[in-house]
Amino acid sequence: MPDTRSRPAGRANRLAQEKSPYLLQHAFNPVDWVPWGEEAFARARAEDRPIFLSIGYATCHWCHVMERESFEDEDVAALLNRDFVSIKVDREERPDIDGVYMTACQLMTGQGGWPLTIVMTPDKQPFFAGTYFPRESMAGRAGMLELLPRLAELWRERREDVEAAGASALAAIREVEVRGLGSGAGALDEEALRRGFGELRARFDPHQGGFSRAPKFPAPHQLLFLLRWSDRTGDRRGVEMVEKTLVSMRRGGVFDHVGYGFHRYSTDARWLVPHFEKMLYDQALLAMAYTELWQMTGDDAHRTVAREIYEYVARDLTDAEGGFYSAEDADSEGREGAFYVWTRDEFDEVLSAALGEDVAGLARRAFRIEARGNFADEASGLRTGENILHAGETPAEIAAALGEDADYVEKRLEEARRVLFEKRTTRERPLLDDKILTDWNGLMIAALARSGLAFGDESLVGAAARAADFVLGRLRDGEGQLLHRYRDGESAISAGAADHACLIWGLIELYGATFDPRWLRAARDLLDPLLERFWDPDRHGVFNVDATQTDVPVRQKELYDGATPSANATTWYVLLRLGRLTGDLELLDRAEALRGALAGPVGGAPSAHTMSLVALDLALGPAQEVVVTGDPGDPGTRRMLAALADRYGPRTAVLFKPAGTPPASGGPVAEALAEIAPFSAPHDLLDGKATAYVCTGFACRRPTTDVAEILEQLAGSPQDN
Fold first, then answer.
1. 478/395 Cα distance (integer angstroms)
2. How far apart, in whole angstroms, are the C-alpha atoms of residue 457 and residue 451?
3. Burial (0-12, 13-18, 19+ Cβ within 10 Å), 155
4. 490 φ/ψ sector (left φ>0, alpha ψ -120 to 50, else beta)
């Protein structure tokens, strides 16, 4: 539900008719906000006013601060309403708009972030950019009461300069695009992987994990690359960096030790003090990283963290129809983190009353509760006496120190967590951003399916399938084209390249977890519009939006990875995956064209493009396809498929062809698979037993009915395959 707690009574503005929770948060501001659209720009031209563009998202803490200080203020609103046409944009609904003007902000100021503040001409040319501005000038930062009159005067008195600056800014943005993807010059080879590893190694924090000092952001695509590097080279330092990072994150305050799930990032170097919002994409990509780390190391603690993430998502971010909500806010009760922190007195009182002082003392030690607290007020920097729960010792370490049984300690701490969770439900919850986004759902579908396959957990696979059915069924327009956002019964906004690519990734993983060819067919069907509508025939790669999306002044291409993998990297990855799963050489040719186009940006800064390095690892191979044919109910077939599911095989694709007696009678599933992946058609049972065909480059080794031999073939060198 949209947040209505801070709305003053009064007249609603035009945002009241929108579906975005972020826009609805501003629907009762005294600012005369209007949504992005031609009506707003026509009004600005007719009234000869500049545009004040404010971009943010529903769970953005500093967006809330700027709203409270400025957009709910009558004096600021009067200036905006007198001199500007004010437009609000939800960056998660319209990442294409955000991308253009974030680039403008970075070019004009050297930095960016949200809230994003842009002042521009009615022709969408930005001439002023920034992020958060307070109501009044402070600490060298201009305040809105001072800034707005100066900008209005600039518009009236120096129009030629303003228009020249706006034209120059757009020209600079277009130049950035021209310098982006090339036409195939240069090459990406294993040297790019080596350099990417070296750059991450140089930035790695050996004490706390992660690849910066402070703030520290989770960047799971970096971790996925490092695992592949270790698998490819045998260099264990990649796995060690991943394990140090993920263990430190799970112990830190960036993890919600009471309700599970990860907060957005850590404001400090120790993963202790988070920015408290929780995003769906972080849960998806981190769960994937923990799953792959478990496959690499066999340490069940990592599998447990992935399951904890999924428990949180199922409980708090899942729609009744199966789709996944976007995020939970950092703020409640008018301040950040209030939902999550505890004073020592409250902590002790709750646990002592329910479980006794002994368990309360055990929990104080486990969650490192201090009398002074460890959480500081944002404005003053002084401790509030509240604690962010985090872990120092493991339950086993605490048990050893106290001479207790480890199982006993673990059981008591779980009881304490449940009591704290129940108490926390009585607090005012942060806002839930309940819009459902196609690209972020695609990432969660991919994660659930991959973990469900690895863990042998049908409930995770089922959750992925429900979400896929929801997106494929609900997020379509009247012509069957994919849409970006669903909320409150309405599907809207044309899907971008990232929506297509991420959903395709999810569907590929769902096929691998179910071997239901309909998911492979759905992925292949979505690839056609991605290539037809978004592909650049001249310089290759995919634009963020298709050619019909004409309301943004620059058609951009997303190249480097941010909080989520870039659209071009994900497109490259799914082209390779689908090309190899289906045997479609045209898809592999398109993937090779994208590899050449990405050579410049990826080769120039490999560690800024780690999802591209994941794709490059797959492109370099050895990539293997395993076609398993057998009776689905046969124990031998199940053992064979389970052995393939258990292993870490980032360059291995598995197809399953049901077989009966005679071998060719696999039924409609086998027929559907043969239609999508024709090279699988000739593969039949050997001696009436479940049989595997290990193939590289669509050339297969001798078929085998022996699980050990399958694994031996997969472990062979590229030359052997």
1. 55
2. 8
3. buried
4. beta
Q: For residue 506, which of 576, 574, 435, 590 has the smallest C-alpha distance?
A: 574
Both tokens of 237, joined, read 């330092």
Domain boundaries, the chain: 14-178, 204-307+317-432, 436-619, 624-715
pLDDT means over runs of 10, the chain (721 residues): 46 95 97 97 97 97 95 98 98 97 96 96 97 92 95 96 95 86 70 98 97 94 98 97 98 98 96 96 98 97 98 98 97 94 97 97 96 83 89 92 94 97 97 98 98 97 98 96 97 98 98 97 97 95 94 94 96 97 95 95 96 98 93 92 93 90 61 90 89 85 92 68 33
* Separation CA 39–CA 622 (nearest Å): 54
Q: Name every residue whose Cβ is closer than 8 Å to that of residue 626 and which is 6 or more positions away in sequence.
A: 644, 652, 653, 654, 655, 692, 693, 694, 695, 710, 714
| Whole-model pTM over 0.85 | yes
- CATH fold match for the domains 14-178 and 624-715: yes
Choices 1.10.10, 3.90.550, 2.40.50, 3.40.30: CATH for 624-715: 3.40.30
> Who contacts 32 (Cβ-Cβ below 8 Å, separation ≥6)?
13, 14, 77, 80, 81, 86
Radius of gyration of the chain (CA): 27
Residues whose CB is less than 8 angstroms from the CB of residue 48 and which lie 6 or more positions away in sequence, other chains included: none
C-alpha–C-alpha distance, residues 643 and 646, integer Å: 5
